[in-house]
Prior knowledge:
single chain; alpha/beta; 6-stranded parallel sheet; 3-stranded antiparallel sheet; 36% helix; globular; 6PGL; 6-phosphogluconolactonase; Glc/Gal-6P_isomerase; 6-phosphogluconolactonase_DevB; EC 3.1.1.31
Amino acid sequence: MKSYIYSTATETAHALIKHLVGMMEREPDRTFYFAFSGGSTPSLMFDIWANEYKEVTPWKRMRIYWVDERCVPMEDSESNYGTMRRLLLDEVGMPGEFVFPIFGDYPPEAEAKRYSAQVCRTVPLWRGFPTFDAVLLGAGDDGHTSSIFPGQEYLLASFHPYEVSVNPYNGQQRIAMTGCLLFAARKLVFFITGKNKANVVRDILDSGDTGPAAYVAHHAEDVEIFMDAQAEKASGTM
Length: 238
Ligand code: 6PG
């Protein structure tokens, strides 16, 4: 696990964007498969990406998927797809054929199956599983990630690529990437900012598997943590 700490959330976002663009620059002849999480932290990255890195990013060599989605229409402000489309994809003119959204307004169980099949069909297989080049993860202050909340750790052992989870705080259903895809990814990249994330950062940086995010970070092969000083300092681990 490699940690990268920056003084502000904005600087962390810049570093993460440069890291992802750098991956693609180092292999200029191939297409990259990325899965993005939702929530507020990625929104900062999408906004900066659209405004300051539009010209240097090889958009047509990217294929965009989602880690998770809230079961709401894409027009809803809660929609992870709708948010990324508004802040980044529409701004940079990303061709629709390179974007593979989860449809939050479809019946959840059916959509989890549909999206699982679509990912298995369109993301290159490696070691028998669809393998993303990078899966961008956030972490909730309760230790959740990929919309897998504490108490739903069974989803980390699922062999269904996506399953329905439930946000325990409001009962909202979500479509969530499960352990079989998370652990198949070439790289998991956490992007965590803010002092309210102190506990989950401590869990991730320590050795205790105290929640889904920490478990994923401790059991995946290649994990990078991009965080700001607020999250790191509050965690008291460095
Ligand atoms: C979601 C996310 C979720 C997120 C964490 C952190 O759809 O909400 O995928 O797992 O990564 O909740 O969210 P923030 O970045 O808003 O703190």
